[in-house]
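anyone else get weird line breaks when pasting these?? whatever heres mine. first is seq + tokens for prot A
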Amino acid sequence: MEKSQPFVIPAGVTFQVSDAGLIIENAGDVVLHTTFGRTLSRVVSRAGDVELHGAIAAGALVAAGSVRVEGTLAAESVQAGGAVTVTGTAGVGSMQAGGDAAFGGGLTSERVEAGGGLTVQGDLTASELVASGDVAVHGAFTVRRADVGGSVTVHGPLGTDLLQAAGLVSVAGPTQVGTIRAGDIELTGQPITARGLQARNAIHLGPGKIQIDAMIAGEVHVDARTAGRATIIESQNDLGTNAIKGGFRLADYAEMFGDPAGYLRERGLSAPGEAWSGPEASGRPAPPAPVAAPLPVAAPAAVVVPVAAPVAPQVVEEPVAAPAAVVAPVEPPQVDVAAPVTSVEEDAPDEIEPEPIDADEPAASATRAPHPLHDQLVDAVEKIAERYNEGDLPPAVSHLRSLIENRSYDEIRAEITSIWSDLVKFHQKHGLRIQHQVTTTFNTINSLVKKM
């Protein structure tokens, strides 16, 4: 008979069980191959690393060294003095890494801060991003404001109010943005909609339709098949043959419409020769994650917890053999990023007004016609509601059901991230694990919303 693994807790380790979940603190490394069927309220390594395995639901993960999750992660905060690595999808309230950060799936977060580079294999959705190194996103980049000390590579669509980078910004998918300021800008997807593009060196636009208020760079290169409108194009080279309407040089604009300084300033741009602010200061290093004073032990010992069969309370009274822990949706909910769509009039270029990214969609209203995907949304939210006992329905689910019933599609898009967060907090507060079916169905709703 094979000998079972020992369960060893070194001296000096803090191990508590609270209503919010488990609290584990140690001076050395913390390595968990099980969560004991409970939410991890707080896991701290004061002088080492934190390594977790499985579908992790947590409040705070704090390490003086690195944080690594072999699986998926749903957490309120992650703080690491070193690197942060998650092999699966992550939904995090805030993430701070002193070194590089890498995610094997998508990442949804309010604020992401990395002292090194950032790699996301899926979609990146955030309100704010600060990174000292390069950023590579293999899916969609939907960030309200981003400051990057290196280059930015996006393989999917780009949506942002403001993106500043010291190096190259390269986007292969559609671009709908407010302002991009970078060393170089290369946009090869279509269409391209922007209030302002400014590069120290060069701007390259691929074939397709553009709608841009102003472009300023040492050189601007557009494909001969590029068409659309650009009010101001200021560069030191000749654009060559193209189908772009407008294209005033700053001197021509000043002669016809007056000083362009205000027009540029409103779009976050500066005239050639003016002081360049932003990208050099972007991507400031993330400070080391705050950790409490070391525990009074002679030498930090690692906490290593072997695999154990989880036992956890269920939300409904039906047997579930091995329920999954709370995980972030497989496709992270979209943050409502207001990137503009311009409308350029040749006789009044200074009257361009921004509209939201989803400007082509009608305004949300309880009386509007149902969306073609409406019935699928109704079925999905009812499947979630069925997983709870009568009278125990989480407020987040009730709110989502109400928004769907009222056909408030714009509000659903804007609030989907906070609804998921509220659902996670409800389960943490009551010491309950989210059933696998609830997570899977929420993923379905999120995917439907992204298609609307």
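and prot B, same format (seq, then tokens)
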Amino acid sequence: MKKELLIKEKEMQLAKLKPHIEKSSVCAELYNKVVLEKAILKKELEDAKRNIIAESIKSFIPRKKTLICDYFKSK
């Protein structure tokens, strides 16, 4: 939830900076910095969601452990 709010805040900052990009190099650099920060936050949010889903799926699927003697069984 916190990262989603931070992403919204970055989007607002980008909207304010966009008209001034071509007027000032400082604004252009700041705009690029905010774009990178937003991308990092989005990636962290996606990773957090993916890990929760993957862990819940793994807990439902039973794993068969392969023993060393299973490799030597004759068929």
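btw re prot B: The helical segments are 2-17, 25-60. The chain has a mean pLDDT of 85.
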